Amino acid sequence: MPKERPMDAVDAIVAQWRRERPELDVAPMATIGRLKRCAALLQRRLDATFAEFEMGAWEFDVLATLRRSGAPYCLAPTALFSAMMITSGTMTHRLQRLEASALVERVPNSTDARSLLVRLTPAGLELIDRAVAAHVDNEHKILSPLSPAELALLDTGLIKLLAVLEPAE
Predict the structure, then answer these.
(1) What global pTM score does this model have?
(2) CA atoms within 13 A of residue 8's CA, in its CB half-sphere
């Protein structure tokens, strides 16, 4: 017989709904509630690491997107906001702030004289290289209580869920 697990915050919410609306099958509420709670708790831990580098998650995302694009760490603003799934207005504001911090710069596009590209500055490259190393280390620490088999099972389930949720390309 498996050991009984400790109650979590979601169990209490589901129990209340089962009491108040016993005719409803609220099992999906438990799964989705745990996913949402995990996402919120994970973000807090990720944000703590970003704060060590005096940046927020959005700054990390922009710099990391440029860094993983490969040398010369340069993308068109439209490629950046598409990769990050944000609006162009949001991207413009973010780029202005990163540019003011000398972490990115706008450079002429050699293939289209009417547009500019966004490129990591040397300071931006140095910062994101340090931050991403700390970020990966943090992710390892967060997931370390799970066994390789548990991580594989979790990843498989999340892959299936993403396939259901993401629109077909």
Answers:
(1) 0.85
(2) 9
